[in-house]
Design a protein that fits this description.
This protein has about 450 residues and is α/β, with parallel strands linked by helices. The chain is about 40% helix and about 15% strand. The chain has a domain of about 270 residues: Rossmann fold, CATH 3.40.50.1100. The mean pLDDT is about 95. Helix 5 crosses helix 6, helix 9 packs antiparallel against helix 10 and helix 11 packs across helix 13. The structure holds pyridoxal-5'-phosphate.
C-alpha cells in the first residue's frame, strides 16, 4: 500500500493561486485612519511596492519567480502522507491524509512566504526587515530566509513566548536574526506599554506595532516590515501547499476529498492548503472545509465581522475581518501561533460566503490528539497543529459512526520539537481548558466601538 506521495522538483506548481477574484462577495477594501479606502502608496513606507501589488491583485494566477522556486526546492515539494497507523488505531473506514509542512528547515509552513517576501524586498532594494513573532515560528522562518538571501532581520517576540520558548530565539540568532522580547524598550510603543503594564505577557498586536514603528522610522528608507500571516499576499504564497496536494492526491488515485482541515491563527497554513479546494467548492464540489481555532481565542466562531486594526497601537490600516478587538490580550495557552485577535480578510470572506465552516477546540482535547498522533504516526506536532489533528480525529470518528469511507485531509503545519514544554505541562496535568467568557469578549470589543463597519 502506498502511504506517502512525493513529487519531483519539476512537478512543483509554477504559479500561486489568488482566491480574491473568485470570492462570490468581493472583499471590502482596507481603510485608512480617515475611514476612506487606502491607496497603495499609503502602504509604501511599510511594504515594498511589488508586494503591495500582490496584496491588491485581482489576478487569479501569479507566476512564482524562478529564483524563489530554487530556494523552495531545498525542502519542497513536501510529502503527502496517508495516516494508516492512525486510521487503524481509530478503527475508522475514513482515509486520513496529511500534508507535511514540518519538513522545512525552520519546521513549519512559514518559510513558504518568508522566502517569497524576502526575495521581493531584496528586488526592491530593501536591506533590513522587521517583524513580530508569537511562538517564534515566524521569527525563525524570516531569519532563515534573510540568511539565505542576505538581508538583516530584527524580530520582536511576544514576551511570554520569549520566556517560555528560549530555543526559538537561539534558532533566530543562528540564522543571524536579532530577537528582542516585546514590549521592548526599543520603540515608543513598547516603552509606553511597559510604563502602563510592566508585567504584561505581551501580544502579537503589540509586537506588530513595535516592528512597524522600527521599520517606518529608519531614516535610510531601506527597512520594511514583514508579516507572517493575515495579509492577502501571505495567503497567496502559501497556496503552493494546496496546489502540490492536488497533484499528490491525483497521483495516489483520490478523485475526491470530503473534509479539509487546517488550524488557523492568522489563517495562512489553513488558506494555503484549503484555498485551491475552495475554488473547487465555488464551482460545485462538495467539501467540508474546516479552519480550527482554540476556544480561548474564538476569532472565527464568536467574534463579529468588523473593520479592525491589525495591531494594538492602531498603526495598520483597518481590515475587514472577524476580530476579538485589537486590545485583545490572549490567555496564555500553549498554541502561541493561534492567539492573534484577527483572522485573514480572505478567510473571513470565505466564512461569510459560507464556503468554510470554522470550529473551536479546547487545548486538552488537542494535546490528547497530538499524543495519539505521536504514538501512532510518530510525528510530534506543534501545539497549533494539534488543533487540526484533533479535528481530523473528530471527523474520522464521525465517519466511523456513519460507516462512511470519507477522505479526510489536514495540514501538518509544523513540528513541536521546540515546544516540548507544552507537552510537559500537559503530562503533568497543569493545562486547563478555558473558553473565553462572553463578558471578557465584550470588554475587548470596546476597542472597536466607533470604527466603520464592513
Ligand atoms: C504560525 C503557525 C500557525 C498559525 O499561523 P497561520 O497563519 O494561521 O497558519 C500554525 N501552525 C504552525 C506550526 C505555525 O508555526
Amino acid at each position: 500500500m502506498q502511504i506517502k506521495v512525493l513529487l519531483n522538483e519539476d512537478e512543483i506548481p509554477r504559479q500561486w493561486y489568488n482566491l480574491a477574484p473568485d470570492l462570490p462577495t468581493p472583499l471590502p477594501p482596507p481603510l485608512g485612519p480617515d475611514g476612506k479606502p487606502i491607496t497603495p502608496d499609503m502602504l509604501a513606507p511599510v511594504f515594498p511596492m511589488n508586494l503591495i501589488e500582490q496584496e491588491v491583485s485581482a489576478e487569479r494566477w501569479i507566476d512564482i519567480p524562478e529564483e524563489i522556486l530554487e530556494i523552495l526546492y531545498r525542502w519542497r515539494p513536501t510529502p503527502l502522507h496517508r495516516a494508516v497507523a492512525l486510521e487503524k488505531y481509530l478503527g475508522t473506514p475514513a482515509k486520513i491524509y496529511y500534508k507535511n509542512e514540518s519538513v522545512s528547515p525552520p519546521g513549519s509552513h512559514k518559510p513558504n512566504t518568508a522566502v517569497a517576501q524576502v526575495w521581493y524586498n531584496k528586488q526592491f532594494g530593501i536591506e533590513k526587515l522587521t517583524t513580530e513573532t508569537g511562538a517564534g515560528q515566524w521569527g525563525s522562518a524570516l531569519s532563515f530566509a534573510c540568511a539565505l538571501l542576505g538581508l538583516e532581520c530584527k524580530v520582536f517576540m511576544v514576551r511570554i513566548s520569549f520566556d517560555q520558548k528560549p530555543f526559538r530565539k537561539i534558532m533566530m540568532e543562528t540564522w543571524g536574526g536579532k530577537c528582542v522580547p516585546s514590549p521592548s524598550n526599543e520603540t515608543e510603543t513598547g516603552r509606553r506599554i511597559l510604563a502602563e503594564q510592566p508585567d504584561t505577557p505581551g501580544s502579537l498586536g503589540i509586537a506588530i506595532s513595535e516592528a512597524i514603528e522600527e521599520a517606518v522610522s529608519d531614516p535610510t528608507g531601506k527597512t520594511r516590515y514583514s508579516l507572517g500571516s493575515v495579509l492577502n499576499h501571505v495567503m497567496l504564497h502559501q497556496t503552493i501547499i494546496g496546489l502540490e496536494t492536488k497533484k499528490q492526491l491525483e497521483k495516489i488515485g483520490e478523485k475526491k476529498v470530503d473534509v479539509i482541515i487546517g488550524c488557523a491563527g492568522g489563517g495562512s497554513n489553513f488558506a494555503g492548503l484549503a484555498f485551491p479546494f475552495v475554488y473547487d467548492k465555488i464551482h460545485g464540489a462538495e467539501i467540508d472545509i474546516i479552519p480550527v481555532e482554540p476556544a480561548s481565542c474564538p476569532t472565527m466562531t464568536k467574534a463579529p465581522y468588523v473593520y479592525d486594526f491589525g495591531d494594538t497601537a492602531e498603526m495598520t490600516p483597518l481590515m475587514p475581518m472577524h476580530s476579538l478587538g485589537h486590545a485583545f490580550i490572549p490567555p496564555p495557552i500553549h498554541a502561541g501561533g493561534l492567539r492573534y485577535h484577527g483572522i485573514a480578510p480572505l478567510v473571513s470572506g470565505a466564512i461569510n460566503d459560507g464556503l468554510i465552516s470554522p470550529r473551536a477546540l479546547h487545548q486538552l482535547e488537542s494535546y490528547e490528539a497530538a499524543v495519539t498522533f505521536a504514538r501512532t504516526e510518530g510525528i510530534i506536532v506543534a501545539p497549533e497543529t494539534s488543533h487540526a489533528v484533533a479535528a481530523a480525529i473528530q471527523e474520522a470518528k464521525k465517519a466511523k459512526e456513519e460507516g462512511k469511507e470519507k477522505v479526510i485531509l489536514f495540514n501538518l503545519s509544523g513540528h513541536g520539537l521546540m515546544d516540548l514544554s507544552g507537552y510537559a505541562k500537559y503530562f503533568d496535568g497543569e493545562l486547563q481548558d478555558y473558553a473565553l467568557p462572553d463578558e471578557v469578549l465584550k470588554k475587548f470589543l470596546k476597542s472597536i466601538e466607533g470604527l466603520p463597519k464592513p
